[in-house]
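Hi F.,

I've been meaning to write this up properly since the lab meeting, where we talked about keeping a consistent format for the predictions we share between groups. The idea is simple: the sequence comes first, exactly as it goes in, then the structure tokens exactly as they come out, then a line or two of notes. No screenshots and no reformatting. I'm using this chain as the first example so we have something concrete to point to.
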Amino acid sequence: MVTIEPAHLVGTGGAIGALCRHYLGSAVDVAGFPLGTLTVNVAGSFVLALVTFASLDSELLLFIGTGACGSFMTFSSFSFDTVHLWESGERLRAAVNATANLAGAIVAIGLAWGVVTVAGL
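Output, unedited:
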């Protein structure tokens, strides 16, 4: 059995997650609203909850959870986008962005729990 160092698992997962974040975020982003950031945060919350609730082994949790999901989701971009919208006078969009990120993540986590429960993982 090959043992992989935890730092390599996290680093490799992080590289994959960062690339996925860039390509997915860029593909769905729209002018005037940070849809790319919202999309990756909600999708990442689902995947992270799924692998956590499925009780995967520690190596997969490091690779997918800490590495890939850690670099895929972006709290800093969400915060920056929300403040930028607010300061630009787009107060409603800022509030929608903040609410959608939080509510979307909570719904995604609930869906992941449901999937794991129904699938018996």
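Notes:
The mean pLDDT is 95.
The chain has one domain: 6-119.

If this format works for you, I'll send the rest the same way.

G.
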